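note to self: the first set is below, dont mix up w the second
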Amino acid sequence: MGRLIRSALMMLLLMTVITGVAYPLVTTGLAQVLFPSQANGSLIQKDGKPIGSTLIGQAFVDPKYFWGRPSATAPQPNNGESSGGSNQGPTNPALTDAVKQRIDALRAADPGNTAPVPVDLVTASGSGLDPEISPAAAAYQVPRVARARGLSESQVQAMVAMATQGRQFGMLGEPRVNVLKLNLALDGH
C-alpha cells in the first residue's frame, strides 16, 4: 500500500510540474517570441504609454470622435472585468427603451442626419467589449465628426476607408473599423 501511495504522489508531483509549471512557461515563452503584441494584450501605445487595446472598446462621447458600440458591462462601459451582454431579448421592453434612447442621443448629436441608424450603434455586443463597428456605422457618423473637426466629409471618409479592415483571410467575418485606431488617426491628422 505504501508503494502505491508513493507512486501516486510521485505521479501527482510530476504532472504538477509538467502541466502547472513547464507547459505554461513554454507556451508563454513561445507566445512572447512568435506573437509578442497579441501575447501582451494588443496594446496601443501613445507617447510610450498604453492608452488602450485593439481588443477592448472604449466609450467616446465627444462629437469629434467616432462612437463605438454601446456596452452592457457594469459598473462602467467596456469593463473587462464584467464582460457580458445584457441578456435582453428582442421582445424585452427594457431593450426597446434602451435602443430608443441611443437613437435619440445619436440624433441629438447630429440633428441633420436623417439616415437610418445602423443597428450596431444602438445594440451592445455579446461581450459588451466590442472595439469595432461596421463601415456603415462609421459612415453614419462621418458628417458629425467632419463638422466637429472642421474637416471635409471626403477627408474623414478617406480616413474611415484606411481604417476599414476586410474579412479575415478574405472570407471570414465582416468588414470592420476599429474605433480607437480611427480616432487616434483623426487626432494625428
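second set (the one i keep forgetting abt)
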Amino acid sequence: MTVVVTAVFYPLPDRKQELADAMQRGIAAVHGEQGCELYAIHDSEDGTITMIEKWTTVEDLDTHGSGSVVEILRADVKDLVAKPATVTRMTPIPAGTEAQGQL
C-alpha cells in the first residue's frame, strides 16, 4: 500500500536557505532508495520547509526511516533547525481522476 509523508522542518531565524541547501545531499541519496516514488522539498509561506514523500510500501518507508541516509540528513540539518521536524504519515484516499486525485 502506498504511503505519503510530510515532514515539516522549522529553520532557525535567517537560516531557511541554508537549511534547504543542507538537505540536498540527503535528497539525492534518498532518490536511489527502494520504493522512493517522490521525495521533494518545498518552501512555505509560514517560514518552514516541507518535505513531501511518497513510498511504494510502508516497509520501504520503514527501511528508509531506519537507514543511514536519514542519519546523514539529521546530521546535515541539526544546527539549522529550531526544533524537531513534524512528520505525518498518510494513506491516499483516491478521488477524481487517477492523475489528479492522488499523489
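remember for set 2: Residues 68-77 form the longest helix (10 residues).
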